[in-house]
């Protein structure tokens, strides 16, 4: 009955269709990139970049109100900042020997501060806009957005499947990767640039605060179950898509923002798996 | 593969580790490197693999300066302590297929059998013992069909049967004219197939000697 009315709405309104398609693509892409991010111990980078990318968006909003240039398009500025953020993090790491991870909170703080500043400078920004930046507004996805998402997703997935073995090798054993002729620096750079691209692309949909969760929580669940790398990937995508679809349906009925509901379902799955694992190890011990 | 090392000198920020090392090997030569802990054995190997930047001296593989080699297509390497990501969810089969994609191929099966990996083939790497992991890494190195095989203390933590099995494999590889560099603390291991010894001491000195022959170091 719930489902029926959701499907009726889905068939009636094309904005719901766009939202669902965008959601399914994001739900597929996020955990795949997330798996690499988690395994390379880059979880915090995702969060850092999303906040730095937000600064780009806010500066874009501010500037595009002053000067009507295409380059100041907020989405584009978000991408530029996100990619620039990866280089900035790398640069800052060089300044510290033992506290390399400091580079991330530094960039993140800069991102948050710049965002706050430029939001307050661009007067007449309504609170709806800021909340959509923070938590996303998946129902505002336009055909244009959708096309961009599909193109970037296709590019990213093609790249990842072509480089699958090299990426697995790099993640697993960096020394061997470089001995076996993989250009470690270049591949690493490609991975971070893709991460940056995808993050800035997702800001519109899930919002700054939830991007990292969407990438990481399904993976956190999958890693508890997966034996092989392939299994882990498959589980992560499955959890992500299930939460996404459930999130859509529930938020539609409860009339609440979609993003947070999706994340909460993801966390719920994680907790269930943790309990399941605990019980299983206890059973094993008793035997 | 021919190997030439000319006046190789290497120092970490302050500490001189390799002092003017020179030696050369022909295809099919077997070099065993001995030396106490911290005398520079692993450092030498890391120079070979371009994991460290060599500023003084040169290394040639088949007469090509390693600085000009962009991809070691025929060098196999078994690292000393496996500094890989232990928590990575990956199976033995996935590790091996990253090195050699054709899993049904006779060569692949032969390597898997020779390293006795059938029983652990679908296991997650987290569930393996140190010796089992070592065997996986040896298999991975062999899958790259090396002409130069470098093994840094490959027998540590491996049981006697597999140590002997490795000896037999190395012997066969030597017969196929593969050049082998082995770091070992066991003075006798592979002594029957060793052609040269490279001995490092704590003072940063070394001697390179031919088995049954004269000391050929300078
Ligand atoms: N990354 C590094 N930075 C600085 N010094 C290093 C580094 N790695 C090794 N050393 C030093 O260089 C020396 C040689 O180290 P190396 O690892 O080559 O020794 P080894 O002969 O392989 O010893 P072992 O038998 O313990 O494996 C040691 O004294 C060590 O302290
Ligand atoms: Mg060593």
Write the layout of secondary structure elements.
The complex is a heterodimer of chains A (287) and B (218).
Chain A: H1 2-12, H2 14-39, H3 43-66, H4 74-93, H5 103-121, H6 127-135, H7 143-162, H8 164-172, H9 174-179, H10 184-206, H11 208-225, H12 229-254, H13 258-286
Helix pairs in contact in A: 1-2, 2-7, 2-10, 2-11, 2-12, 3-4, 3-5, 3-10, 3-11, 4-10, 6-10, 7-10, 10-11, 11-12, 11-13, 12-13
Chain B: E1 3-11, E2 16-25, E3 30-35, H1 41-48, E4 56-61, E5 64-65, E6 75-78, H2 92-99, H3 106-114, H4 130-143, E7 148-152, H5 160-175, E8 179-183, E9 196-200, E10 206-210
Parallel strand pairs in B: 3-8, 3-9, 6-7, 7-8
Antiparallel strand pairs in B: 1-2, 1-4, 4-5, 9-10
Helix pairs in contact in B: 2-4
Bound molecules: adenosine-5'-triphosphate and magnesium ion.
Description:
The complex is a heterodimer of chains A (287) and B (218). With 287 residues, chain A is mainly alpha-helical. Helices cover 84% and strands 0% of the residues of chain A. Chain A has one domain: ABC transporter involved in vitamin B12 uptake, BtuC. Chain B folds into 2 domains: 115 residues, Rossmann fold (3-Layer(aba) Sandwich), CATH 3.40.50.300; 65 residues, no CATH class. Chain B is 25% helix and 26% strand. In chain B, strands 6-7-8-3-9-10 form a 6-stranded mixed sheet, sandwiched between helices. The longest helix of chain B has 16 residues. The mean pLDDT of chain B is 88. Bound molecules: adenosine-5'-triphosphate and magnesium ion. The site of adenosine-5'-triphosphate (ATP) has 12 residues of chain B, from helix 1.
**Strands of the biggest beta sheet of chain B: in what spatial order?**
6-7-8-3-9-10
Q: What percent strand of chain B?
A: 25-35%
Distance between the termini of chain A: 45 Å
**Approximate shape of chain B:** globular
**CATH topology term of the largest domain in chain B:** Rossmann fold
